[in-house]
Design a protein that fits this description.
The chain is an alpha/beta fold. The chain folds into 2 domains: 76 residues, no CATH class; 165 residues, 3-Layer(aba) Sandwich (Rossmann fold). The chain is built from 10 helices and 7 strands. The protein has a 7-stranded mixed sheet with strand order 3-2-1-4-5-7-6, with helices on one face. Helix 1 packs antiparallel against helix 2 and helix 4 runs antiparallel to helix 5. The termini are far apart.
Length: 262
């Protein structure tokens, strides 16, 4: 069994990142994320098969904490995160055919910025969803850093859901905080969430257009506030005027709908 490297010096990491990250809240959230992923008592599940570079990449984060380059630390941790995200996903031939037909992305890692920026929008009563979750790491980390009522993970691959459940146990997230749905986003029931994360699960054309239309209709019908974090965004043309765009940096676009009056 793989053995994890010694944990990084997170106080040193916080000090090192202070000069590079102006937002103190996001910096502290990044350091907490490092703690969550690098100080587990055991390696991730089936590390030798699923995460063969875990020991090497963990050691790289620890080494970067001892250095003086904040960019090197961020890059080392980003590589570890992407490895856990499993950007080369074990889809079956039929699952690949279905995802290719709809123009979705292959479980690409959405990056750290959605995790770092989500804290101000997630609260204990939140119901979040990841549409096209892969192994669910992104939603699991949102749940771990900002514990909330329910995180829904919708993913077409049964194998990825199986791995995600193992990651959930590894991260010590209670069973009742995560709902796993092995379903196609094109046909799954939509709605019941106030925080939505998606990394362009389908192309906004053909059968994909109907997905974005249904999603926009479902979110607009929610009585409360709704926040959407969209990577490689193609949702804007479908959202009704009740949504405002909060920000966009060319990678992550954020929208918000205010709650209905009364």
């Amino acid at each position: 069994m793989s053995r994890r490297a010694g944990p990084p010096d997170l106080e040193a990491a916080d000090w090192l990142l202070a000069g590079a990250m102006s937002d103190r809240t996001e910096r502290r959230r990044l350091v907490e994320l490092m703690r969550v992923l690098t100080t587990r008592p055991e390696p991730p599940p089936d590390a030798e098969s699923l995460f063969p570079r875990w020991t090497e990449l963990s050691a790289g984060v620890a080494e970067a904490c001892r250095g003086d380059d904040p960019e090197a630390l961020e890059e080392a941790f980003l590589e570890l995160y992407a490895h856990l995200h499993m950007h080369e996903a074990p889809y079956t031939a039929d699952e690949r055919r279905r995802v290719d037909a709809s123009g979705g992305y292959w479980a690409h890692a959405g990056g750290l910025s959605p995790i770092l920026r989500s804290g101000r929008f997630l609260h204990p009563a939140s119901r979040s969803v990841d549409l096209g979750a892969g192994n669910g790491l992104q939603g699991l980390l949102l749940q771990r850093l900002s514990p909330h009522a329910r995180c829904c993970q919708i993913e077409i691959s049964s194998r990825m859901v199986e791995i995600g459940r193992a990651l959930q146990r590894w991260l010590a997230i209670p069973d009742d905080r995560v709902e796993w749905r092995t379903e196609d986003v094109l046909t799954t029931a939509l709605g019941g969430w106030d925080f939505v994360y998606l990394y362009r699960p389908v192309r906004p054309e053909g059968i994909g257009r109907r997905f974005y239309e249904r999603l926009s209709e479902a979110l607009a019908a929610e009585p409360g506030a709704v926040v959407v974090f969209s990577i490689a965004d193609c949702l804007e043309e479908f959202l009704p005027p009740v949504f405002e765009r909060l920000s966009s940096d060319g990678h992550l676009t954020c929208y918000r709908k205010a709650p209905r009056p009364g």
